[in-house]
């Protein structure tokens, strides 16, 4: 199964899905996954206002830049870095727009933070964020994270309530191919 998976380090539901997919890959699932950044901050920009893609002071943007730089230049360390950036935000409650917070979060992941910092400073990850975010909106009508996008262009937004459950991903991937299902949404959270 080949699919893209959107993420924003600000979103706990994106964390749940991304961790589960990474665990599935680690467990040997035959998935070909491209992790695709999608900015929730950009979604909330009013028409006529400036885009946030290259504004590291905007919430979540600097973490996106680092995640993209690692994904594209140090893919072997991306899984650990991806988990660490989510953890900094959701376990530690840290401000992931601070460079020191990001570099501290990446300690122990194997990432060469000095090399990645240079790539981030080059502006290339900001451009990649803009391109990938806009593509997700224009080609697949993505509006939030996590969204799974299959190779044939079926985009499905999902909210997993629990962290890291690979079985949830297996179930979802089975459902995505079902063309007769357009929307499945609980009217309230079961307790």
Task: Outline the structure in words.
By secondary structure, this protein is of the alpha+beta class. It is 47% helix and 10% strand. It has eight helices and four strands; from the N terminus they run βαβααααααββα. The chain has helices at residues 12-26, 40-43, 61-73, 78-90, 99-105, 113-122, 124-140, 166-176; strands spanning 2-7, 32-37, 147-150, 155-157. It has a four-stranded mixed beta sheet, sandwiched between helices. The longest helix has 17 residues, at 124-140. It is globular, with a radius of gyration of 16 Å.
Describe the secondary-structure layout.
Layout: E1 2-7, H1 12-26, E2 32-37, H2 40-43, H3 61-73, H4 78-90, H5 99-105, H6 113-122, H7 124-140, E3 147-150, E4 155-157, H8 166-176
Parallel strand pairs: 1-2
Antiparallel strand pairs: 1-3, 3-4
Helix pairs in contact: 1-4, 1-8, 3-4, 3-6, 3-7
State which percent range the strand residues make up.
5-15%
Strand count: 4
Derived from helix and strand composition plus strand pairing, the structural class reads alpha+beta
What is the helical fraction, as a range of percent?
40-55%
How many helix segments? 8
Distance between the termini: 33 Å
Main beta sheet strand tally, sense and closure: 4 strands, mixed
**Strand arrangement across the biggest beta sheet:** 2-1-3-4
Q: Over all CA atoms, what is the radius of gyration?
A: 16 Å
The ordered H/E elements are: EHEHHHHHHEEH
The residue ranges in which pLDDT falls below 50 over 5 or more consecutive positions are none
> What is the general shape?
globular
Average pLDDT over all residues: 94
